[in-house]
Amino acid sequence: MGLFDKFKKKAEPVVTFPLTLDASARGTAVEMADIPDPVFSSGAMGEARGVKPAVGEVYAPIGGKITQLAETGHAIGIEADGGLEVLIHVGVDTVAMNGEGFRTKVRQGDRVEKGSLLLTMDLDAIAKAGHSDVVITCVVNSDDFASVEPTAETELAPGVGMLVVNK
Question: Which of 53, 80, 102, 110 is the most exposed place for a label (fewest CB within 10 A)?
């Protein structure tokens, strides 16, 4: 390594569109209009799609940097290469659980790859608390792109496309 190599800017990764976000959980697709939270179902936060989880694990739908991590573990923000800003929100009103039943596997500032385990959740604890456990994946800067569209898939799992973003 040369004397000035540490000052050289790293090359930005090449991002090609359309860009596919994979499912953030294993389960059944929940279309945006059917997400049981009007903030997400109305599109106020951006284009979104949910998963009714069959397993209490949440995965990164895209690679990027963890920019937000709720202290309660129920929400994680990822800034992906290509400028995409993604929010993964587990359940509805689960913030009231004060982190009970959630275990994060990442920290703010971490870089994650698509498919990385982000958190685990206790589906029984969420149900006992009376909350929906739908895992919501939202492109919060949807307006920066030509379109954000759901895939045709209805049974979702990590590695299966969930949303397609066009530049």
Answer: 110
